[in-house]
Specification:
alpha+beta; endopeptidase fold (from Nostoc punctiforme); eight-stranded antiparallel β-sheet; 10 strands; rod-shaped
Length: about 200
Amino acid sequence: MKKLLFVLLLLLAMVFSMVTPVLAVSKTSSQQTKEGKKVSQKSTSSKKKVLTKKSVKKKPSKKVILSRKKGVSRSGSVADLTPPKEVDKLIANAKELIGTPYRRGGTTTAGFDCSGFTQYVFKSVGIDLPRTSEAQASIGSHLNKEQLIPGALVYFNTDGSGISHIGIYLGDNKFIDSSNGKGVAINSLKDSYWGSRYLGATLVK
């Protein structure tokens, strides 16, 4: 009986000695796996942060510089400051009418008012203008005084109520118009009367 117990204890000791290393190895492997997962998660997280920072970077904004040779249209867009089509013919046609009398509401060579004159001359080169000086001044591209070019429409406040007169710019501070008392004639923006009443200019093509 004692021998049998001794044999059983010996067998248990042998089994225990064999199982202990296996459990230790299994535990170590499990810990390594967990540590490997943690390192992998940290690496993935850091990569995401780098990608996020890169994606957040904004592209530098570009400054938009407008040339002084550009005018601004009524819609706010930039217009090319080239003269109206056939500007030489337009000016020649206007000058041919010098001496035509002023007539209120006139739109023919029998007599023009200011906007009737500009409408008639522009029509001769295929450009349709509205009937009144105020309507004509409201279309096209607005020009600063230093941007004036031949063929532009120049408009004035002659009665204190706003836009009430219009003519065609010829260059060198000269313009041609039809005014009460003079009819169709060439005048100067440097003249104190016209210079003080000048409001602006527009380019219509």
